[in-house]
Fold this protein.
Amino acid sequence: MRVLSLFDGISCGRVALDRAGIPVETYYASEIHQPPITVAQKNYPSTIQLGDVTKVDGTQLGEIDLLIGGSPCFRAGTLITTDKGYKKVEDIQKGDMVLTHMNRFREVVAPMVTLSNRIYALHIQGRAVTHVTEDHPYYVRRLTFVKDKETGEYAKVFTEPEWKAVKDITAGDLIGSTVDEDILKQDDLIIIGSFVWLPFRRKELLDLADTVYNFEVAEDNSYVANNCIVHNCQGFSFAGKQLNFEDPRSKLFFEYVRILEEVKPKYFLLENVVMKKEYQDIISKYLGIKPVMIDSALVSAQRRKRLYWTNIPDLTQPRDKGILLKDIVHENADLDTIMGDSWVKWFTERADYLLSKKYVAINPDKAITLTARQYANWNGNFVMECLKEYIVPFDTTLKVLDKEVQSGKMGYFRKDSQANRVYYLNNKAVTLCGDAGGGAAKMGQYLFGDVKPYEVHIKEPRVDDLTDGQKFYTLTHKENRGVLVEGYIRRLTPIECERLQTLPDNYTAGISNAQRYAALGNGWTVDVIAHILKHIIE
């Protein structure tokens, strides 16, 4: 079979063809980003790379049996600061209260959504990379040096803040940002008024078209996105131009349509995210067929609903393989996947919201959808690794001292002996309970306190507290006894993310971990594609 893959990424389609048992004579790939190309060529050296899709001439490729493609997936997810904590930009609704450049909360009066193919990756020191349209304004100052006429010496002078579009931001610009503990750890900060002003580092124009979001804010016409101050000016928001497929900004979809018409393949397949029915119908009109929605959860440990437009006949839903996240995690992961103090603090302050909105999942039955930016902004899938579990008494034998007679000591169980004393750690009580056994139990590593309202496990135990990012301690109430768990929270490894996409272990090895996470988030779930392709030969 002769195959043309547009927006090929790491060639998940090629893996799917192998898994479906379809022989490949020639495999053309259109991709412009080097890390995914490196992965594709490592695994399939015979792949013919064509480069930029806009320069592909389908009439010069000869007969093509199968055309495949998936929209480059840089999904929404920019975090907006509201009076109730962070909220994803796509979830902002009329009536929400957002923080503005006046350092106060004001009401959202009109959410907006549109499509753009002029999207930049904006890098600001100390902040998550933000994907933003070229015309969106940021709150900017510059540092200048003014010469004193009398002394001849130069003094630092900061310009008054102004709104500057992303495309116009240059080296030397300082971006207004909210002040938080993580930023305060940096050296040589510039704090003026209520904000810290962080250096602009770089920006890259991304080769993609995607849905983008904005909203109008009452009075102040500004809000805070990924902790940086932005404007909602109507002139930059493209309000009212909702997904107009005659708009040249949707060029990548039309490149697929153009090439489909040029090569006239026997079969075609286009994948995209779940979207509003009105948008879906527009794509269906151009392709002449309605999509089928398939959730990757049927064949993997990941919830990933996608729409598939294809003329491959008799398409059915895959059989549910019953794979859960616990089935694909490592027994032991590298230490660099363990989340540190900053993440722990961020999570504990917002746990109810993050878990309920499924921005973060810890030990879920099924992982939430992988995205290209899942760890850049601290969202995503995480695993709680339990190292040891102990049963300790939790009853009325605990005696609390009237006053602190030893630093940190607050009481003891049964009798005041070394093995039974209870101390405070990070404002929570820990115990050296002899019943807990040896090891960390003898180092005061256990926590007592109120059970928090959010769960880490689907069943007991529940989270009691997260201390330092390296250890995780749980206390549950059950028959007057407590279960104490020593462990830590970590992110998924690249291999685990490969397994979520049903790729072979270490398929993406050879590029950086950050590039692996991004490439996998943009990729396909191979077993879903293989299931679709098998209908060609059945």
Observations:
- Residues 233-249, 387-396, 423-486 have pLDDT under 50 and may be disordered.
- DSSP finds ten helices and 31 strands in the chain.
